[in-house]
Design brief:
By secondary structure, the chain is mainly alpha-helical. It has 2 domains: 60 residues, Orthogonal Bundle (Arc Repressor Mutant, subunit A), CATH 1.10.10; 53 residues. 62% of the residues lie in helices and 8% in strands. It contains 6 helices and 3 strands, in the order H-E-H-H-E-E-H-H-H. It has a 3-stranded antiparallel sheet with strand order 1-3-2. Strand 2 and strand 3 form a beta hairpin. Helix 2 crosses helix 3. The protein is elongated and about 55 Å long.
């Protein structure tokens, strides 16, 4: 049985559409377009979703008159790959540089701070 290759990394525009689908779940083209605040034309959103379908980034349910699209790639692994590329490309592979720049650019909420502390504690446990 041939091995299925992983879908390609989404472009910035494709990522914006995936974020809508991750947040909303399965959605029609019109729902995705409305969620984007009509920044793009309806036909542009439709074309991107069709391209993403061919790439394997989304699935389409054709049972209804209005086709419904859903993300075919999981949110967290997609984000982790994107962050990994960002760390390598912009921060020379240094995770700490990324974290320091992110924390200096935008303050954390108290919930985000708690979550960060939990992650740091887990990370410390792994390195001991």
């Amino acid at each position: 049985m041939p091995r299925r290759s992983a879908p390609p990394e989404p472009t910035e525009s494709e990522l914006a559409l995936l974020q809508v689908l991750w947040r909303r779940g399965p959605s029609s083209v019109r729902e995705v377009w409305s969620e984007l605040g009509e920044k793009s034309g309806y036909t542009t959103v439709l074309k991107f979703l069709q391209i993403m379908l061919k790439k394997g980034l989304v699935r389409r349910d054709e049972r209804e008159q209005s086709h419904v699209y859903e993300a075919a790639v999981a949110e967290h692994p997609t984000q982790e790959r994107a962050v990994g590329r960002l760390i390598d490309r912009v921060f020379g592979g240094s995770t700490s540089e990324l974290v320091l720049r992110a924390l200096s650019a935008k303050p954390l909420s108290s919930d985000e701070l708690k979550e960060l502390r939990t992650l740091l504690e887990k990370n410390e446990g792994k390195t001991k």
